[in-house]
C-alpha cells in the first residue's frame, strides 16, 4: 500500500482513493501473482538454514529486515529462526490474532444481532451491534417485518450507535487509508461495508467521463470537480479520484478509452450513522412505510423488540476476514469481543471512558495468553493490521497458529486461511509450484512490509507452521514476495533424511 508522509500541511494534502484502472483498491491486501523458483530436489532439515540464507542474503535484500520462524506444528523445536523474538510491523497478519480471539471468545456459531425497538409515541429505534455483513438486503428484511406488524408510519426513526464507543477510524491509520474503501469507518450501525460507489462512463472522445451514482442519495453530499477525459480507443487508461480534507469535494482526473467498460470506484462514507438512516428510509419507502424525521442517539434503554436480523455464523465472518483480508470485518470482530454479554472469560467490566477497541485488546491478550501465547510477543492497537503501530514477533504468530491447531475451532480457523494457488489472497500465488494446495497462510502487505504466516502440509514431512515478515524495504511488494514465496516453496520440499 502506498503510504503518504504526513509532515505536509493538511490543507495541501490530497489523498488517493483509487488509482490506475484495474488496480485493486484494497491495496493493503491485494496480492500479485508470483512464480517462485521451483527447485526439484528435496532438502533435508539440516540443509534448510543454508537454503533460506541463500535467499535472504541476496544483494537485492541487503537492506531488508527479515523475521522468520519455522517449526513443526506439534513440536517446539526450531527448523529455522531469524530474529524470531523481535518486533516487526505485521500488516494483515494481525488478523490471525483477531480471528483467533474471536473464535475462542464467541464460538464459531455466534451471530451478531441487529434489532429494531418500539420506544412509544410512534418512535422507532434501530440498534446496531457492528455486523460487518449487514447490507440493504437486511434493511429490507427489517422493513418487511415492521410492515407485517402493521406499522405503516413512523414518526421518528432513531439510529442508536452506542454499542461501540470510540473513534470510528483509528487515529494511527494513514490519511490515504482513511479515505480509501479498505479503510472505511467502523461503527455500531454498518451497512454495505460503509462504502458507496460511483461509475465512471466514457463518452465521446474529448468529453469528460460521465459520473453515475449507484446511490443518488449520496450525490447531494458531494461536490464533483470532473477533470477526466474520454480518449480514443486503445489508448491507455488511468483514473485518480482524490478527496480534499477540508470539504466533501471529489476531484476526478485521468482518462478512459471510448467504448471501454464503466469503471466502478468505491468510496468510504463520511457519516456512517446518517448513511444507515438514509438507506433504511429507502427500504421503508419500498414497503410503503411513511417516515418522518430521523436522528442519532448514543444511549438509550431497549424497550419492545419489533424486528431483528442476525449475521451469518462467526465462522463465515472469520472466513471473509482472512480469505479476503477484509479490514472492516476484522475491526468489527475485534470490537465484538469487548462487550460483556459476549465474553466467555472472567474479566473486569469495561472501564468508564474506555474505548471499545482498548477493552477488546485487553480481552484479546487475556484470551491468547490462556492459549499459551507469550503476551510480550506482540503489541496491538487495532484488529486489522492497517495501523503501522502494530508490532508482532514471528514467534508470537507461530504460537497463535500452533495454539489454534489444538482448539475445537482448529478446522474453522485453518479453513479461513487462503490456500496457495487456490483461494483468497493466495489464489494467484504459488501456482504450478510444490506449494500449491498444501500451504494455508495469511498474507499481509503495506508499503515496505510483506508478511506470510501459516501452515504447510507436505506428504514428505511432518506438518509445519511458519511466519515470515519482511520490514524496512523501499522495494515494491512484488520483489519482496518473490523472496518470501521462494522460502515457502523450500519448506514444501523438506523430507525426512
TrEMBL record:
EC numbers on record: 3.4.16.4
Gene Ontology MF, one: serine-type D-Ala-D-Ala carboxypeptidase activity
Key words of the record: Carboxypeptidase, Hydrolase, Protease
Family annotation (InterPro entries): Beta-lactam/transpept-like, Peptidase_S13
Keyword ATP-binding part of the UniProt annotation: no
Pfam families named in the record: Peptidase_S13 (PF02113)
Coiled coil: none
Gene3D superfamilies listed in its UniProt record: DD-peptidase/beta-lactamase superfamily
This protein's record includes keyword Protease: yes
PANTHER family the UniProt entry points to: D-ALANYL-D-ALANINE CARBOXYPEPTIDASE (PTHR30023), PENICILLIN-SENSITIVE CARBOXYPEPTIDASE A (PTHR30023:SF0)
Record-stated family: Belongs to the peptidase S13 family.
Descriptive protein name: D-alanyl-D-alanine carboxypeptidase/D-alanyl-D-alanine-endopeptidase
Native source organism of the sequence: Plectonema radiosum NIES-515
Phylogenetic placement of the source organism: Bacteria, Bacillati, Cyanobacteriota, Cyanophyceae, Oscillatoriophycideae
Amino acid at each position: 500500500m502506498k503510504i503518504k508522509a504526513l509532515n505536509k500541511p493538511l490543507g495541501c494534502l490530497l489523498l488517493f482513493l483509487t488509482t490506475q484502472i484495474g488496480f485493486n483498491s484494497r491495496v493493503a491486501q491485494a496480492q500479485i501473482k508470483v512464480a517462485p523458483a521451483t527447485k526439484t530436489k528435496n532438502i533435508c532439515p539440516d540443509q534448510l538454514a543454508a537454503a533460506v540464507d541463500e535467499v535472504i542474503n541476496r544483494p537485492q535484500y541487503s537492506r531488508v529486515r527479515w523475521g522468520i520462524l519455522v517449526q513443526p506444528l506439534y513440536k517446539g523445536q526450531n527448523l529455522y529462526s531469524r530474529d524470531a523474538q523481535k518486533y516487526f510491523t505485521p500488516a494483515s497478519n494481525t488478523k490471525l490474532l483477531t480471528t483467533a480471539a474471536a473464535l475462542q471468545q464467541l464460538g464459531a456459531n455466534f451471530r451478531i444481532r441487529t434489532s429494531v425497538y418500539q420506544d412509544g409515541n410512534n418512535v422507532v429505534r434501530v440498534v446496531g451491534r457492528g455486523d460487518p455483513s449487514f447490507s440493504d438486503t437486511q434493511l429490507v428484511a427489517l422493513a418487511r417485518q415492521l410492515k407485517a406488524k402493521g406499522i405503516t408510519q413512523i414518526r421518528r426513526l432513531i439510529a442508536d450507535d452506542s454499542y461501540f464507543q470510540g473513534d470510528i477510524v483509528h487515529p494511527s491509520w494513514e490519511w490515504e487509508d482513511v479515505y480509501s474503501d479498505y479503510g472505511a469507518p467502523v461503527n455500531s450501525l454498518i451497512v454495505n461495508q460503509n462504502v458507496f460507489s460511483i461509475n465512471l462512463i466514457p463518452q465521446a472522445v474529448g468529453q469528460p467521463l460521465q459520473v453515475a451514482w449507484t446511490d443518488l442519495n449520496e450525490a447531494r453530499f458531494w461536490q464533483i470537480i470532473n477533470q477526466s477525459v474520454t480518449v480514443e480507443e486503445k489508448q491507455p487508461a488511468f483514473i485518480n479520484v482524490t478527496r480534499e480534507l477540508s470539504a466533501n469535494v471529489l476531484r476526478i482526473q485521468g482518462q478512459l478509452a471510448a467504448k471501454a467498460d464503466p469503471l466502478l470506484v468505491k468510496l468510504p462514507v463520511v457519516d456512517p450513522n446518517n448513511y444507515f438512516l438514509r438507506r433504511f428510509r429507502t427500504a421503508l419507502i419500498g414497503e410503503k412505510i411513511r417516515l418522518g424525521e430521523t436522528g442519532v442517539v448514543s444511549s438509550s434503554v431497549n424497550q419492545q423488540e419489533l424486528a431483528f436480523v442476525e449475521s451469518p455464523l462467526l465462522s463465515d465472518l472469520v472466513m471473509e476476514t482472512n480469505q479476503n483480508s477484509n479490514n472492516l470485518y476484522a475491526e468489527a470482530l475485534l470490537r465484538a469481543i469487548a462487550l460483556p454479554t459476549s465474553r466467555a472469560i472472567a474479566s473486569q467490566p469495561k472501564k468508564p471512558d474506555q474505548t471499545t477497541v482498548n477493552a477488546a485488546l485487553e480481552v484479546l491478550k487475556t484470551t491468547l495468553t490462556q492459549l499459551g501465547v507469550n503476551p510480550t510477543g506482540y503489541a496491538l492497537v487495532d484488529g486489522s493490521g492497517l495501523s503501522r503501530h502494530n508490532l508482532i514477533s514471528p514467534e508470537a504468530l507461530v504460537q497463535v497458529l500452533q495454539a489454534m491447531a489444538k482448539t475445537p475451532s482448529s478446522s474453522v480457523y485453518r479453513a479461513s486461511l487462503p490456500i496457495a494457488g487456490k483461494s483468497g489472497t493466495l489464489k494467484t500465488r504459488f501456482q504450478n509450484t510444490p506449494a500449491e494446495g498444501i500451504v494455508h497462510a495469511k498474507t499481509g502487505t503495506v508499503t515496505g512490509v510483506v508478511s506470510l504466516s501459516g501452515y504447510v502440509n507436505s506428504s514428505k514431512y511432518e506438518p509445519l507452521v511458519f511466519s515470515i515478515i519482511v520490514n524496512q524495504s523501499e522495494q515494491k511488494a512484488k520483489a519482496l514476495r518473490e523472496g518470501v514465496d521462494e522460502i515457502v516453496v523450500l519448506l514444501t520440499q523438506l523430507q525426512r533424511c
